[in-house]
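Key result, reporting period 2: structure in, sequence out.
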Protein backbone atom coordinates (compact mmCIF):
# COMPACT_ATOMS: atom_id res chain seq x y z
CA UNK A 1 0.00 0.00 0.00
CA UNK A 2 1.53 3.33 -1.15
CA UNK A 3 4.92 1.74 -1.86
CA UNK A 4 5.15 -0.07 1.49
CA UNK A 5 4.76 -3.69 2.52
CA UNK A 6 2.13 -3.93 5.26
CA UNK A 7 1.39 -6.52 7.90
CA UNK A 8 -1.94 -6.58 9.72
CA UNK A 9 -1.95 -7.65 13.36
CA UNK A 10 -4.93 -7.96 15.69
CA UNK A 11 -4.58 -4.39 16.93
CA UNK A 12 -2.14 -2.59 14.63
CA UNK A 13 -0.86 -2.14 11.10
CA UNK A 14 2.88 -2.28 10.50
CA UNK A 15 4.43 -0.96 7.28
CA UNK A 16 7.96 -1.37 5.99
CA UNK A 17 10.27 1.47 5.08
CA UNK A 18 9.18 3.23 1.87
CA UNK A 19 10.53 1.37 -1.18
CA UNK A 20 12.41 -1.11 1.07
CA UNK A 21 9.80 -3.85 1.47
CA UNK A 22 11.70 -5.99 3.96
CA UNK A 23 13.09 -3.31 6.26
CA UNK A 24 10.94 -2.82 9.35
CA UNK A 25 13.63 -1.00 11.37
CA UNK A 26 14.49 2.69 11.48
CA UNK A 27 17.72 3.66 9.72
CA UNK A 28 18.43 6.59 12.05
CA UNK A 29 17.59 7.46 15.62
CA UNK A 30 18.40 11.17 15.29
CA UNK A 31 15.29 12.11 13.32
CA UNK A 32 12.04 10.56 12.13
CA UNK A 33 12.25 10.35 8.35
CA UNK A 34 9.19 10.30 6.09
CA UNK A 35 10.43 7.00 4.66
CA UNK A 36 10.76 5.37 8.10
CA UNK A 37 8.77 2.23 8.93
CA UNK A 38 5.28 2.76 10.36
CA UNK A 39 3.65 1.01 13.30
CA UNK A 40 0.20 2.45 13.98
CA UNK A 41 -2.13 1.02 16.60
CA UNK A 42 -5.87 0.82 16.76
CA UNK A 43 -7.72 3.07 19.19
CA UNK A 44 -11.39 2.32 19.76
CA UNK A 45 -13.95 2.19 22.57
CA UNK A 46 -14.56 -1.54 21.92
CA UNK A 47 -12.14 -4.43 21.70
CA UNK A 48 -11.60 -4.97 17.99
CA UNK A 49 -9.36 -7.55 16.38
CA UNK A 50 -8.44 -6.64 12.83
CA UNK A 51 -9.14 -9.35 10.26
CA UNK A 52 -8.83 -7.82 6.77
CA UNK A 53 -7.37 -4.78 5.02
CA UNK A 54 -8.68 -3.71 1.60
CA UNK A 55 -7.39 -0.77 -0.49
CA UNK A 56 -10.40 1.33 -1.44
CA UNK A 57 -10.58 4.82 -3.00
CA UNK A 58 -7.04 5.84 -2.00
CA UNK A 59 -7.55 4.68 1.57
CA UNK A 60 -7.05 1.40 3.38
CA UNK A 61 -10.27 0.05 4.92
CA UNK A 62 -9.70 -2.25 7.90
CA UNK A 63 -12.29 -4.80 9.00
CA UNK A 64 -12.92 -6.42 12.36
CA UNK A 65 -15.90 -8.55 13.46
CA UNK A 66 -18.06 -5.56 14.40
CA UNK A 67 -16.31 -2.41 13.16
CA UNK A 68 -14.73 -0.84 10.12
CA UNK A 69 -11.76 1.54 10.25
CA UNK A 70 -9.93 3.72 7.75
CA UNK A 71 -6.18 4.17 7.65
CA UNK A 72 -5.45 7.65 6.36
CA UNK A 73 -2.33 9.54 5.45
CA UNK A 74 -1.30 12.30 3.09
CA UNK A 75 -0.23 11.65 -0.50
CA UNK A 76 2.91 10.17 1.03
CA UNK A 77 2.23 7.71 3.80
CA UNK A 78 4.57 8.75 6.62
CA UNK A 79 4.85 8.01 10.36
CA UNK A 80 3.86 11.63 11.04
CA UNK A 81 0.67 11.66 8.93
CA UNK A 82 -0.77 8.17 9.37
CA UNK A 83 -3.78 7.48 11.60
CA UNK A 84 -6.55 4.92 11.98
CA UNK A 85 -10.07 6.07 12.76
CA UNK A 86 -13.29 4.09 13.24
CA UNK A 87 -15.92 4.89 10.61
CA UNK A 88 -18.79 2.38 10.92
CA UNK A 89 -20.10 -0.42 13.13
CA UNK A 90 -21.43 -3.14 10.81
CA UNK A 91 -21.26 -6.81 11.78
CA UNK A 92 -19.17 -8.92 9.44
CA UNK A 93 -18.79 -12.62 8.82
CA UNK A 94 -15.03 -12.92 9.22
CA UNK A 95 -14.61 -16.68 8.95
CA UNK A 96 -13.10 -17.36 5.56
CA UNK A 97 -14.86 -14.75 3.43
CA UNK A 98 -12.76 -11.73 2.52
CA UNK A 99 -14.33 -8.40 1.51
CA UNK A 100 -13.99 -7.54 -2.17
CA UNK A 101 -13.67 -4.14 -3.85
CA UNK A 102 -15.51 -3.63 -7.13
CA UNK A 103 -15.65 -0.21 -8.81
CA UNK A 104 -16.95 2.28 -6.18
CA UNK A 105 -18.11 -0.29 -3.64
CA UNK A 106 -16.82 -2.81 -1.13
CA UNK A 107 -18.84 -5.97 -0.58
CA UNK A 108 -18.73 -8.06 2.58
CA UNK A 109 -20.95 -10.75 4.12
CA UNK A 110 -22.56 -10.81 7.53
CA UNK A 111 -24.28 -13.53 9.53
CA UNK A 112 -28.07 -13.56 9.57
CA UNK A 113 -28.96 -16.55 11.77
CA UNK A 114 -28.71 -19.67 9.62
CA UNK A 115 -28.19 -17.52 6.52
CA UNK A 116 -25.77 -14.94 5.13
CA UNK A 117 -26.43 -11.34 4.16
CA UNK A 118 -24.33 -9.10 1.92
CA UNK A 119 -23.49 -5.43 2.46
CA UNK A 120 -22.59 -2.96 -0.29
CA UNK A 121 -20.22 -0.49 1.40
CA UNK A 122 -19.62 2.95 -0.09
CA UNK A 123 -18.33 6.44 0.63
CA UNK A 124 -20.31 9.61 0.05
CA UNK A 125 -17.61 11.75 -1.58
CA UNK A 126 -19.21 15.07 -0.62
CA UNK A 127 -19.42 14.42 3.11
CA UNK A 128 -16.75 11.65 3.42
CA UNK A 129 -19.41 9.54 5.18
CA UNK A 130 -19.16 5.75 5.07
CA UNK A 131 -22.37 3.73 4.80
CA UNK A 132 -23.66 0.35 3.65
CA UNK A 133 -26.77 -0.95 1.93
CA UNK A 134 -28.08 -4.46 2.63
CA UNK A 135 -28.25 -6.19 -0.77
CA UNK A 136 -30.03 -9.23 0.65
CA UNK A 137 -32.80 -7.39 2.52
CA UNK A 138 -35.47 -8.72 0.09
CA UNK A 139 -34.28 -12.34 0.48
CA UNK A 140 -33.21 -12.71 4.13
CA UNK A 141 -33.49 -16.53 4.15
CA UNK A 142 -31.96 -17.42 0.79
CA UNK A 143 -28.13 -17.39 0.89
CA UNK A 144 -26.84 -20.15 3.21
CA UNK A 145 -24.45 -19.48 6.08
CA UNK A 146 -21.78 -21.69 4.53
CA UNK A 147 -20.53 -19.01 2.09
CA UNK A 148 -16.76 -18.99 2.17
CA UNK A 149 -15.75 -17.20 -1.02
CA UNK A 150 -16.90 -14.06 -2.84
CA UNK A 151 -15.83 -13.10 -6.32
CA UNK A 152 -17.05 -10.48 -8.72
CA UNK A 153 -16.62 -8.45 -11.87
CA UNK A 154 -17.04 -4.69 -12.09
CA UNK A 155 -17.33 -4.96 -15.90
CA UNK A 156 -20.32 -7.28 -15.63
CA UNK A 157 -21.73 -5.76 -12.39
CA UNK A 158 -21.81 -9.24 -10.88
CA UNK A 159 -21.00 -10.78 -7.51
CA UNK A 160 -20.85 -14.53 -7.02
CA UNK A 161 -20.98 -16.26 -3.63
CA UNK A 162 -19.75 -19.82 -3.37
CA UNK A 163 -20.75 -22.05 -0.43
CA UNK A 164 -18.40 -24.58 1.14
CA UNK A 165 -20.76 -27.47 0.38
CA UNK A 166 -22.84 -28.27 -2.67
CA UNK A 167 -22.52 -27.13 -6.24
CA UNK A 168 -24.68 -23.99 -6.04
CA UNK A 169 -23.58 -20.47 -6.88
CA UNK A 170 -25.44 -17.40 -5.63
CA UNK A 171 -25.27 -14.56 -8.16
CA UNK A 172 -26.14 -10.91 -7.66
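The corresponding designed sequence is given below.
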Amino acid sequence: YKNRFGILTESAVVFSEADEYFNFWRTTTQSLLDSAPIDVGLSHTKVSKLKYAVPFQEKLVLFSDDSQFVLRGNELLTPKTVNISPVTEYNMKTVGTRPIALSNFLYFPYERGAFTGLYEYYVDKDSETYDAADLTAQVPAYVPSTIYYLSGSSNENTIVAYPSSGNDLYVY
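The chain has a mean pLDDT of 90. The CA atoms of residues 161 and 170 lie 5 Å apart. This case is discussed further under Risks and Mitigation.
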